[in-house]
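Appendix B, Record 12. Input sequence as logged:
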Amino acid sequence: QVQLVESGGGLVQAGVSLRLSCAASGLTFSSYAMGWFRQAPGKEREFVASISRSDIITYYADSVKGRFTISRDNAKNTVYLQMTSLKPEDTAVYYCAARYATMLTTKISKPSDFSSWGQGTQVTVSS
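Logged structural output:
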C-alpha cells in the first residue's frame, strides 16, 4: 500500500522561502513519477510541478515557474518542493502525488495522471 506523507507547511510572510517534503513508503520509489498539486479554498486542485522517475525531467505550472523547484532523493524515498518568493496567492493545501511510471512518462500534470495521494500540508502566505 502506497503511503505519502507531506510535511514542511506553515504560516509565512510573502517573499520568504519554504521547503515541502513528501516521504513515500510501500512502493519502489525510483519507479514512480512524483508530483505536487495544491488546492485553495473554493478552488479546484491545480497542478504545481512534477518530476520523472529518473529525476531528469521536471515540469512546472506557469504560475510557479522560476520560483518553485521540484526534486527527489531516491535513496530517501522523498520528493521535495522548494518554494521561493512566496506570494499570498500561493496559499493552499499542498498535496504530494505518485504514479507508477516508465522512462517515457514525463511532463504529467493532471490529477487523473496520478494514482496515489498524500493528506496534504497547509501553506499560508500572509501579505
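DSSP finds no helices and eleven strands in the chain.
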